[in-house]
Amino acid sequence: MSRLSVRKTYKLFIGGAFPRSESGRSYVVTSAKGEFVANAARASRKDARDAVVAARKAFPGWSGATPYNRGQILYRVAEMLEGRRAQFAEELGGPKKAAAERVDAAVDRLVWYAGWSDKIASVRGAANPVAGPYFNLSTPEPTGVVAVVAPADPLLGLISVIAPVIVTGNTCVVVASENAPLPAITLAEVLATSDLPGGVVNLLTGHQSELAPWLAAHMDVNGLDLGGVEDADLALKCEQEAAENLKRVFRPASEDWSLDPGLSRMTRFLETKTVWHPVGI
Question: Which DSSP state fits 193?
Answer without folding.
Answer: T
